[in-house]
Design brief:
The structure is a single chain. Helix content is 0%, strand content 47%. The protein has no helices and 40 strands. A four-stranded antiparallel beta sheet has the order 4-31-30-29, with no helix packed on it. β39 and β40 (413-421) form a beta hairpin. It starts with a strand and ends with a strand. Mean pLDDT is 88; it is low at 1-23 and 318-333.
Length: 423
């Protein structure tokens, strides 16, 4: 009988043996940062997580860069050369295989216009043209072959920026968009889906619950549209995007305290869903997504009294595979599986992403490893395919509330997704 071992889970023909305790769907504690940081920026670069600048104990500003390698599970302090100007509340992006560190608050409380760039070919930092305005608590994304910077504040008070700038690397210049944000805001949550920039919450004197999406035209001017508001005002948290889902993590509420709350915004449904809460309430943390794992690093504690060195990780999808006891290389994008809303109490949408034409089988299993529903078996083209599960078994009986697993098999590749059904 052919058997596969999947991260400690044993497959056999016709049955899955699943443990009751699973290592995904909840936040896990990772190794601590080499030193506490809040207001730091972070990027994913060359398969590792880099955290840049920020504040540490005694409000000391940093110009150092540490690296976390998920392959070794270890941090390396001072993994890159120091950048010239210490700063916190900056924005960072990877653009044209270089790290751009943009704006922020420098020494003496100066809000910076400067942009520093790390070039791995030379292993050094250099400066490019400054922005039109100093900014801190702004957001930056790469869109349409340029860097787009939005919002923030132009000082440490209440002068919120509503202007938008684009960086053109060929001209080494910043171009100010003719359009503006409907109103200025600092430290919002952000996501980019289908060429739209989604903004949630942020500071406008106090944390706000307002959400909106902007869509740029070919000239870089935005049209803005309102979205459903957050359930409560929040700002200065972390956000990542996976597919068409934007995760909004932690941050400061209207009471001035950090929260452990995590929710997601699913773009196709234009709706929010509750996600597992952080272990530690925090704000001003650095957040990235790498290989379907969210990394949340540092930040301020619940009362804004201490700077944290802890890291938490949330595995959004199961991605590793072992055949027998020997690891084999699995392309992370060959087959993917995710679902929404989760938890659910009526119908859950499952999405299967395939790199190429494949024979697949998509089924639902209970915690005892029994298949209770076969959703699809057949050939699918490359791309994303949607299926629905109505919380019924193959006999059309409604299942009990609890934890279930959607499992997709495509050849020797297997992915699974944990679902929580609440009647």
């Amino acid at each position: 009988m052919m058997k596969l071992r999947i991260g400690g889970l044993q497959w056999s023909m016709g049955m899955i043996l699943l443990p009751l305790m699973v290592g995904w769907g909840q936040w896990d504690r990772g190794p601590d940062l080499p030193l506490p940081r809040a207001g730091a920026a972070a990027v994913v670069f060359e398969g590792a997580v880099y955290i840049l600048g920020g504040k540490t104990n005694n409000n000391t500003l940093l110009n150092t860069v540490d690296r976390y390698d998920p392959r070794t599970g270890q941090w390396e302090a001072a993994a890159l050369p120091n950048f010239p100007k210490p700063r916190y509340n900056a924005a960072a992006v990877v653009f044209q295989n270089q790290i751009y560190l943009i704006g922020g608050v420098g020494m003496g409380g100066q809000v910076l216009r400067s942009v520093e760039v790390y070039d791995p070919a030379q292993n050094k930092w250099f400066s490019v043209h400054r922005m039109h305005y100093g900014r801190q608590g702004h957001v930056a994304v790469v869109l349409n072959g340029k860097i787009c910077v939005l919002g923030g504040s132009e000082n440490l008070g209440y002068e919120y920026a509503d202007d938008i700038e684009w960086y053109d690397s060929a001209a080494n210049d910043w171009e100010e968009s003719d359009s503006e944000l409907p109103e200025g805001r600092a430290a919002p949550f952000i996501g980019v889906v289908n060429n739209g920039i989604y903004l949630f919450g942020g500071y406008y004197i106090q944390p706000t619950s307002e959400a909106l999406v902007g869509r740029p035209d070919s000239s870089g001017d935005f049209s803005w549209f309102s979205l459903p508001p957050l359930s409560s005002p929040r700002a200065y948290g972390g956000s990542v995007t996976l597919g068409e889902t934007i995760y909004l993590i932690g941050g400061v509420g209207s009471n001035g305290r950090a929260t452990a709350r995590v929710e997601s915004f699913r773009v196709p449904e234009n709706a929010y869903a509750q996600e597992p809460s952080l272990q530690i309430p925090r704000s001003g943390m650095a957040t990235v997504l790498l290989d379907s794992i969210i990394y949340v690093m540092g930040g301020y504690d619940q009362n804004n009294a201490s700077i944290l060195s802890s890291m938490e990780m949330l595995n959004l999808r199961y991605t590793s595979l072992k055949a027998s006891d020997d690891p084999i290389s699995v392309p992370a994008d060959f087959v993917q599986l995710w679902g929404y809303p989760n938890p659910f109490n009526g119908r859950l949408t499952l999405e299967v992403g395939l790199k190429t034409v494949s024979e697949i089988e998509l089924s639902v299993f209970n915690l005892r490893g029994q298949r209770i529903r076969r959703i699809y078996r057949g050939t699918l083209t490359g791309g994303v395919h949607r299926f629905a599960w109505d919380a019924r078994d193959d006999q059309q009986h409604r299942v009990a509330s609890g934890v279930y697993f959607a499992v997709v098999k495509a050849g020797s590749y297997v992915r699974k997704f944990k679902m929580v059904y609440v009647r």
